[in-house]
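Summary for the steering committee. One of the milestones for this cycle was to obtain a three-dimensional model of the protein with FE2/S2 (inorganic) cluster bound, which we needed before selecting residues for the alanine scan. The sequence and ligand used are listed below.
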Amino acid sequence: MRSLAVKIAGVELKNPVMTASGTFGSGEEYSEFVDLNKLGAVVTKGVANVPWEGNPTPRIAETYGGMMNAIGLQNPGIDVFIKRDLPFLQQFDTKIIVNVCGRTTEDYLEVVERLGDEQVDLLEINVSCPNVKHGGIAFGQDPACLSEITAKIKKVAKQPIIMKLSPNVTDITEMAKAAEAAGADALSLINTLTGMKIDIHRKSFALANKTGGVSGPAIKPIAVRMVYQVAQATRLPIIGMGGIATPEDGIEFMLAGATGISVGTANFYNPQTTEEVINGLASYLEQYGHESIEEIIGAVK
Amino acid sequence: MRSLAVKIAGVELKNPVMTASGTFGSGEEYSEFVDLNKLGAVVTKGVANVPWEGNPTPRIAETYGGMMNAIGLQNPGIDVFIKRDLPFLQQFDTKIIVNVCGRTTEDYLEVVERLGDEQVDLLEINVSCPNVKHGGIAFGQDPACLSEITAKIKKVAKQPIIMKLSPNVTDITEMAKAAEAAGADALSLINTLTGMKIDIHRKSFALANKTGGVSGPAIKPIAVRMVYQVAQATRLPIIGMGGIATPEDGIEFMLAGATGISVGTANFYNPQTTEEVINGLASYLEQYGHESIEEIIGAVK
Amino acid sequence: MKKEKIAGIIKEQKQIATGIFDLWVTAPTIAGGAKPGQFVSLYTEDASKLLPRPISICEVDKEDGSLRLVYRVTGANTGTEQFSRLQKGDTLQLMGPLGNGFMSELPGTALLIGGGIGIPPMVELAKNRMDKNLIVSGYRDETFLQEDLEKYGECFVATEDGSVGTKGTVIDAIKAEGLKADIIYACGPTPMLLAIKEYAASAGITQCYLSLEEKMACGVGACLACVCGSKEKDEHSQVHNKRVCKEGPVFSAWEVEL
Amino acid sequence: MKKEKIAGIIKEQKQIATGIFDLWVTAPTIAGGAKPGQFVSLYTEDASKLLPRPISICEVDKEDGSLRLVYRVTGANTGTEQFSRLQKGDTLQLMGPLGNGFMSELPGTALLIGGGIGIPPMVELAKNRMDKNLIVSGYRDETFLQEDLEKYGECFVATEDGSVGTKGTVIDAIKAEGLKADIIYACGPTPMLLAIKEYAASAGITQCYLSLEEKMACGVGACLACVCGSKEKDEHSQVHNKRVCKEGPVFSAWEVEL
Ligand SMILES: Cc1cc2nc3c(=O)[nH]c(=O)nc-3n(C[C@H](O)[C@H](O)[C@H](O)COP(=O)(O)OP(=O)(O)OC[C@H]3O[C@@H](n4cnc5c(N)ncnc54)[C@H](O)[C@@H]3O)c2cc1C
Ligand SMILES: Cc1cc2nc3c(=O)[nH]c(=O)nc-3n(C[C@H](O)[C@H](O)[C@H](O)COP(=O)(O)OP(=O)(O)OC[C@H]3O[C@@H](n4cnc5c(N)ncnc54)[C@H](O)[C@@H]3O)c2cc1C
Ligand SMILES: Cc1cc2nc3c(=O)[nH]c(=O)nc-3n(C[C@H](O)[C@H](O)[C@H](O)COP(=O)(O)O)c2cc1C
Ligand SMILES: Cc1cc2nc3c(=O)[nH]c(=O)nc-3n(C[C@H](O)[C@H](O)[C@H](O)COP(=O)(O)O)c2cc1C
Ligand code: FES
Ligand code: FES
């Protein structure tokens, strides 16, 4: 049996395949379709210190080969998350990565501290959500802010921290290096690209929030490019995502330099995607005679 | 007859529809498929002061709902362009917009000066090509550089200048405002988004250049968002592009704030796109009782 | 009931009114557990259109393992237009059964009110109810599904142009016909639902259930795209939002803000 | 000849070897002007795949207004796989005729050399020539189109595994058979074309024409995607690049760098 196991910031995952935050709920909703025990990790929807209402609807729109969302990080808050969602996930033989969001640095720190004593494997810090008006986006688009918040979170975090980067920047490597220098243990990329859709018949915005984050296969080439650039620029393990819908897509991200790969939008139209990707990785190793999946990480020439 | 005419920097176009630079050759190649007399304008492939070889092949790759190119601005140089390509275009009843590229500020100035005495309506300055290693991209990703080159070109240009912006930036409005303050007469956006594709069987890059510019329907939501943001942030007329393949796409850009709209990648798979968009604009005005296309520019609410 | 995503097989499809299509699809695992008021997510074969099209279950044939879906083509180049070209034997990707559905077993006389493309779910609901059904359908002009509905209750029609039944809204028809009921079940455009909510309040009909619409991505409660405002803090979300795909699409009129 | 983009109608399609499909498509305006060695761009119905698939014209039936295309399915989920599912009566978007084609009228004995999926254009070329054809086909193992080629010339085969004809390359076959010619026309993988160019030089065959491949976006010379290196400065580009879709796909071996 060829090994699919990978290590991210000291945590061993049985395979590199996980769910992208916000596309898999708290894991429970898709557990009818996917055996969570098969996943490398489940990444939860972003959770804040208090419940968030999120944005008005419509919150999503279809785009060519993708979609746009402005959920606005609706979440039940850390209390209910710890009481209800974590125990559900802890039943399964998979790693748990909690995605953390906030409006201020203090919000983030509070959530990270609360999670310190919980059975959680990794924390993914979302500093890149383009749909939150206060804070949020700023952290992820300015290297100095990113560096500051990374350092502060690292100080209080008991689990390794993964900084999730925004693709809406001029130079992704500058952001990655800032996070690395400030102590991040890993990086996730990419979050969604800011987009807009207009209903030409109503002459109005398709999303109540006007703009939203574009995800899905349409954005894959941009995501692969950024993963490659960051892999060249830092030594941190990378969780790559953006349009992964097939095993081939996942392999492309790993060749570009990703250690982990997350399936997001594809869950919505093919809930079996994660399992298909896992199986496809195994066949690829077989086909090309690799003993371990680690051999293909960053192996593009 | 409802009016499709629009004015860009004092130049009246019979309709807002044009061809995106680099996707329509010098106009000659597609003249078998499209009646150039029907177009608002033809925008030429980028031309430099001297002939450029461009990048090694493969120069293009297909991506989900789009494509990636790294042509590297191959062009025959301004001499042959003026002798051969301009006279061809001047036979038609359409406006001529010459796209200008360069490696250094001096390159740009030379081309702009040479075009000063030619029958050319507008100059589109490509400061955003992501495929040229020296210069090029830098101008379009740094507001100070952009401002400097815009001012210098404006000083020598006899025709109004359109600055073509790169979408690979953190804040497109900052770039737009820099160009406006430095004297640009109009703005074109967006150029391609930098992407990458990896051939997983060869474990090599799909493009010889490794990265390329992503274009086509896949990138439309990002382009519409940027056009809207720039329309809110500056007073300059905007030529919008990025994935326009149907009349509805074109209308979406105009509602977002574009005065002109360019068809790029879609020409490759449907050479009739420009004509279809023009016809569709007319039907839309009819359907919603607008007297003139100008009524819909920026009309999203 | 377990949700599944499967390839259904088209049994038959016909157009029953201008732009309104009537499709029977064989999907045994979904049909087996389907309840009135639940819906399915349909997926196109068009690689540019990735999101589901939620369509209410109009009728279920459990023996045959098939579902009836009645839907409107919303325009050119839409997913629904693509579905309208499906022919017998073609496959159709669908997921379901989704949502909570109507509580069809409530005793008492019920008003089943459908507006336009909100009419289809009333067929299976009327069929499943034991007690009296007063079925009120609102159309712009052309009617459809009336023959089916007449099998399961007394039918009343309102049309905007007055070409059939009462001229005006479903509320106008209810008032004109002097209909009285203990329960209301309704599905249709938001302005209609608002009017029904008001009518129910004024008529003192406390059992009023509305089926809502919202844009969806997952259809299973994972993405939080499809929320509606809720009066009380929702238990799942801990905010004043409920998921139409999961807690809904059917809500008590008094628990949601339209 | 004017290029057109049209919806062709499939006349028939069959598999003629493992993964090799043989398609006749009715496309009168394209067939009317098509020359040997020219190609057409095929477009998929898959909205995620926008670029053309260039395929050489294998045969033309001018009376019938149809084209024969012989192509290889390159893998799962590819455009060519989608084409392979087309059936009689289906439509296929295609543009053409594109490129320059072979100069079939050159007098003298010619070697027509095809390698793998470079063999198909040799059928129409052989058919159009007036003078003697020596047709050499190189395959990995399984052969195809030999019956068609035999109608128009003397045929020789090379297979990598030696299962048919000479074991080895087309050059091995030419040497083994002692073939002599005034002209070479060739189409196939780059290593084969390189070997042929060398062979032509050593054998003193100055009329050597090679059909090249490159990734394409427009197919009409507009995008500059499909260039090959040229020995002299190209008149159109003013650099050492020629467009395979426009100045090619057929070039004199001496004008291009492979
Ligand atoms: C629970 C529920 C049940 C429904 N039942 C029916 C039914 O039985 N018959 C029927 O004709 N229609 C029904 N609808 C509406 C139907 O979902 C839309 O008309 C359909 O999705 C439009 O898709 P399209 O491909 O025609 O449009 P497009 O414009 O191509 O759709 C683009 C995207 O927007 C979404 N969308 C567009 N309109 C709506 C809408 N009104 N509600 C939700 N999503 C929308 C689509 O699902 C798709 O993701 C129902 C909606 C919901 C939420
Ligand atoms: C002038 C010319 C004539 C050709 N004639 C034939 C022929 O007669 N029979 C035949 O089987 N093949 C021929 N080919 C090769 C054929 O174009 C490719 O095999 C085909 O495009 C692959 O498409 P796909 O959908 O299978 O692969 P995908 O991997 O889905 O293709 C992705 C993209 O890459 C392009 N591409 C992939 N491989 C090639 C290639 N080798 N050359 C050019 N573009 C490529 C595709 O066109 C498409 O745009 C010819 C190529 C050229 C340039
Ligand atoms: C509906 C939706 C909700 C999302 N919510 C979050 C979130 O809460 N936190 C986060 O970091 N990313 C969130 N994302 C971004 C995804 O995790 C992922 O980075 C992005 O969608 C790109 O991957 P994809 O193309 O596979 O979807 C969300 C994406 C979608 C589509
Ligand atoms: C093959 C190709 C070549 C291009 N060459 C140029 C160029 O020379 N100058 C330029 O400013 N933009 C160039 N572009 C960018 C387009 O003009 C346009 O900005 C971009 O493709 C987005 O539009 P689209 O999605 O409609 O193609 C090129 C794009 C493509 C696809
Ligand atoms: S559609 Fe995803 S939560 Fe309802
Ligand atoms: S494919 Fe565009 S120039 Fe040849």
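Key point for the committee: DSSP finds six helices and 17 strands in chain D.
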